[in-house]
């Protein structure tokens, strides 16, 4: 290996044991910078097939020959494999807590996607460089449920509210109104008396089977998570 971090420097300590060494350690930032430098150096090398790609680097060839029909990458799928994971619970039909912060459901209708009486979900996320989590992707038993955004806090003191507080309050009030409407629309109506003519028409209706569209199976990306083969191949070509 040619990375600086893989060439530890040892300094012998002469003591009564005579087998003690000081081994240099590296910080997380140094390790990341060393890896990035190695990647950039590799990508900047001339492409092995200079006869076909004269004067072009590996990176130039990659950028010039990308498949134009590739679909945009889906964060909800990608973060499930490379992001951080935690188990959490939907609280008050509104939000879930991840890393001590609340992330709200995009709409009350999302609750209908959950299993009956089961509010436990798996949250996947990837913090920014400063540790900020801008969105959380929640799953239940491997099935994608929704993308949750941070819940904006607001000052409840009306006299001290800023425009930001008012906007946050309005946004949360909209969600509450949508939830109340959903509950109202789903209420069981009073029992009524069906007219004989209508009852006769209903009994005469013949049930017909309705074909359902085949559900696309979720792609398995686990095979791409083992990068050891790619690393070995890349090093061999240096």
From TrEMBL:
Protein name: DNA primase
Organism for this UniProt entry: Bacteroides uniformis
């Amino acid at each position: 290996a040619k990375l600086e971090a893989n060439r530890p420097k040892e300094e012998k300590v002469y003591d009564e044991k005579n087998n003690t060494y000081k081994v240099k350690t590296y910080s997380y930032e140094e390790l990341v910078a060393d890896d990035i430098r190695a990647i950039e150096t590799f990508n900047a090398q001339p492409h092995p097939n200079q006869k076909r790609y004269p004067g072009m680097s590996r990176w130039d060839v990659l950028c010039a020959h990308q498949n134009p029909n590739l679909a945009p990458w889906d964060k909800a799928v990608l973060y499930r494999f490379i992001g951080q994971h935690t188990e959490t619970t939907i609280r008050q039909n509104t939000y879930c807590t991840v890393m001590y912060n609340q992330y709200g459901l995009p709409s009350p209708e999302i609750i209908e996607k959950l299993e009956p009486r089961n509010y436990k979900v798996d949250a996947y996320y990837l913090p920014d460089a400063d540790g900020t989590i801008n969105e959380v992707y929640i799953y239940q038993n491997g099935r994608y449920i929704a993308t949750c955004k941070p819940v904006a806090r607001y000052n409840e003191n009306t006299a001290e509210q800023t425009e930001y507080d008012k906007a946050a309050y309005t946004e949360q009030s909209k969600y509450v109104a949508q939830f109340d409407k959903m509950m109202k629309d789903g209420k069981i109506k009073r029992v009524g008396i069906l007219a004989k003519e209508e009852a006769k028409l209903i009994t005469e209706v013949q049930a017909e089977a309705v074909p359902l569209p085949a559900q696309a199976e979720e792609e398995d990306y686990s095979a791409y998570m083992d990068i050891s083969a790619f690393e070995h191949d890349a090093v061999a070509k240096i």
